[in-house]
Amino acid sequence: PTRPSWKMAPVEAFQLLQDMSPYVKFGHFTANQAILEAVAGERRVHIVDYDIMEGVQWASLMQAMVSQQETSIAPPPHLRITAVTRSGGHRRSVTSVLDTGRRLAAFAASIGLSFSFGQCRLDSDDQLRPAAVKVVKGEAVVLNCALHPPHLPWRSAASVASFLGSASELGARVVTVVEEAVAGGDGDGNRGFVGSFMEEMKRYSAMWDSLEAGFPMQGKARGLVERLILGP
Question: Is residue 205 in a domain?
Answer without folding.
Answer: yes
